[in-house]
Amino acid sequence: MTRTMRVVLLCVAVIGAGIAATSLLADTNQASTTAEERCCFTNPRFTGVCVVTPTEDETCSGILAYLNNPNSVGKPYCGGTTIRGGWAQVECKE
């Protein structure tokens, strides 16, 4: 085996380990999210329930205010919807 092949194999192994670790972390984060840690919203013009997991500096009331502000843009809440106004917070179901 040449030195180049060993370097390539080492790189592949390191990248594979990184991908596996990232995947495991994502699964752990999703599994630890409970109904209390999520915000759920409905709107007559939106199909289904919009579920948002707030970041450390966000609150459900802040997210609701954003969704109801006709001038707000830039956040990917509810699949990046552009529907503004008419949002109501509802209880999240497991």
How would you describe this structure to a colleague?
With 94 residues, this protein is mostly helical. It has two domains: 1-32; 35-90, no CATH class. It has three helices and three strands, in the order H-E-E-H-H-E. The protein has helices at 3-32, 60-68, 77-80, and strands at residues 39-42, 50-52, 88-90. A three-stranded antiparallel β-sheet has the order 2-1-3. It is elongated and about 65 Å long. Residues 17-32 have low confidence and may be disordered.
SSE order and pairing:
Elements: H1 3-32, E1 39-42, E2 50-52, H2 60-68, H3 77-80, E3 88-90
Antiparallel strand pairs: 1-2, 1-3
Briefly, what is this?
The chain has 94 residues and is mainly α.
Key descriptive features of the protein:
94 residues; 3 strands; mainly alpha
Largest sheet data: 3 strands, antiparallel
| Helix fraction by DSSP (H/I, runs of at least 4) | 40-55%
Global structural class: mainly alpha
Radius of gyration: 20 Å
Task: Calculate the terminal CA-CA distance, rounded to whole Å.
Answer: 53 Å
**Number of alpha- plus pi-helical segments:** 3
Total strands: the figure is 3
Strands in their spatial order, largest beta sheet: 2-1-3
Mean pLDDT across every amino acid position: 79
Q: What overall form do the CA principal axes indicate? A: elongated
Order of helices and strands: HEEHHE
Low-pLDDT regions: 17-32
User: How many structural domains in the coordinates?
Assistant: 2
Approximate strand percentage:
5-15%
